[in-house]
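In response to reviewer comment 3 from the previous cycle, which asked for concrete evidence that the modeling workflow produces usable outputs, we include below a single protein chain processed end to end. The sequence was submitted unchanged, and the resulting structure tokens are shown without manual editing.
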Amino acid sequence: MITKLTRVLGFFMIAAVFSGQADATFIGHIPVQYVTAGEKTTINLRRFCEPDAGDHLFIAPSGEYEAVIDPKTLELVLEVAPGRAGLVNMPIILQTSAGAGLPGERMGVMTLAVGKRHRHKFSYTPETKLQKVVAAGSFNGWSQDRTPLLDPDGDGTYEAFAMMDPGTHNYKFVVDGKWIADPSNPDKIDDGFQGFNSVIRVEGASGGNAPALYAAAMENWGWTIQCVPGADPVKEVAAIVEKEDGTSAVIEAVAIGNGSGWKIMRAGIPDNAWIRIVACDDKGRVSNTVRFRTSPPRAFDWNNAIVYYAFTDRFSNGNKENDMPVAHPDLMPQANWHGGDWRGIRDKIREGYFNDLGVNVLWLAPLNRNPSFAEREHDAPNRHYTGYHGYWPVSATEVEPHFGDAAELKALVADAHSRGIRVIADLVLNHVHESHPFVREHPEWIGSLTLPDGTMNLKMWDAHSYTTWFEPYLPDLNYDNEELVKTMFENAAWWAREYELDGFRLDAVKHIQPDIWRRFRVHLRNTIEQERGPLYLVGETFRDRSGIMAFVGPNGLDGQFDFPLYDTLKSIFAQGNSGFAELEASLSASERTYGKESLMAPLVGNHDKSRFMAWADGDLPDPTQPDEEEAGWNNPPQVNDPANYSKLKMGLTFLLSIDGVPTVYYGDEFGMSGAGDPDNRRDMRFGDDLSLYEKSVKNYCAAMAKIRQEHPALRFGSRRPVLVEENRYAYIRAFFEDRVLVAFNRTAASTEFALDVAPEFADGEYVNLVTGEDVKVADGKAAFTLRARSAAVIAPK
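The workflow returned the following structure tokens.
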């Protein structure tokens, strides 16, 4: 019972006592957590805190929830009282052991946004009897086991029920192993891979609009947060101060007007902290989250970052003496070394290419030495490849000679830093190449390629995620071995220290246990970050949002690439498969799942994805070659209709006007085309090698990056959609005095817009920063014309 449990917690104040060896007590800022009343939710607290040996971790008692912590896993099993809807602030208290050198009690506040769920019925009537049919989708992690459809009555109709949160859910039926869309559901979206997904749209509590908040004013006495009323009055508000030491506490938000906003007084609020506020109405509809700093940051704020992946071998050849392509009769040029190197990247740094483009973080391919010969892939068509990409390490400390020597790498980083550009490097922790000394000297560090039943554990991405091998020549590392864990952690810290790296892009995150990534963060925090401040750790995980977030938190990765949003962005802007309601639902899902505290990385392109322009120009999907990689080998795309570059410009506008750390893949700044790997890794082109249309896209990308850097609303602000139609879309971003309206016209004709932009926008004169055209706001409406397939970014003059 809730009463009994909270009474126990209240008297003894202990839910878990920790023993053994830990590094240092830590607690960090916790994003708003969305839960359902009356249902058990499991939350891994290790994402947010790190108890030391002898510490006590407990949940403050309340009659509103029941909470139990597993002391071994640090998993919190939480159940909010049935019927409760709205906001609950749940204190998490870390009582430190004697002699830890820290305050005796450290507290973090977990704000729970408590909602109700929808019970959805799946139904499928096949023509013949089936062995197995399941519903798999975003609501259950695309599991082929969790939601089976059964026919207990024997009438030929298979049915199942599933609980779903508000939002948009994509799904398919898996019918005796075959994936199909739901034939009874007309709402579908092209998944860009296997045909169409069916779509379920679950409205929020009782329908209607939730309240929308924005940071309105900053004064000497404090801050004002305004509310754009929703369908019903605001009932609750949760205001939190997130302090520099990682602790957080509830603070008072004083209501002003008739529920039109709140004031937060500066007195008692520390500098170098964040304030976060969220509200809900009397129907339980939760607002957006507003978060802002109480003073300018001490160091570089990664919210201000724009990352550029200069894929080293294909970017710029600065030193032809280290080209050294592999000679092999069956090796195609696309899979060989092309000569790009660190000197080439350094040349572009000194020429001002990245400063002119507006990016301030460089992501480099893995730095380790790779094999000097080609390997043959296991699966058909059994092509040969080299390690030009850098993901086959053969040494723990040697740099890749095709890219340069250690001195050249250090010079690159120094030149970047001198121009305000940070450098992160790709880090491969999941596997090594079979010629790596680890394989010979420490066979116990290597996992088995064979499963207990004799099956080859190869490319079993989901069934054996933590142990599967990518290729037989890429042995998977066994992180059950503590000596290996220690070695890899120390090696990563060595790379960061030796080459003054500012962070890491982490490869194949989902193929290493989440607890290893937590310990990886702890090690870097207690070594490199103590020496010179926070690193940026961004990961690559191809899962749904909840699967991505399993690795993210202040005690884990800072963020990961937002592939779920990428899939929707590509579908909406490149392919035009569905309307902007799908994009708004996807973006809202990302904002809600990740929270303002995370540093997720949205993107329009990636080295593992076919290029945006291949989809935008209609080369993909290729009707003659459904496999994207084979399309790249046999029918490489080229942009034939320059008008389709406008689709990329809209995509870049979206990318550079939303939360997170936007990431630009080399060549996407001008619209390079390409199908699957390795066709998406063509040689970079510069200057006169670009067409006039490509130069136009590059100039547009640079202009949008500059707009983002000049407008904090696009990096920190609230976001409120003001128009969501099939082919027109607009949202307001507001952050204190900075207000920006972003609008899209996906139609083939110029279109008039008349948008309600009050109260964020006062009546007056504004400008479209994309075109320089004047825009007038009168009587709370912004009226302007938007050209065909274009975007506007409107701000005060």
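The two ends are 59 Å apart (CA to CA). We consider this sufficient to address the reviewer's concern, and the full set will be provided in the supplementary archive.
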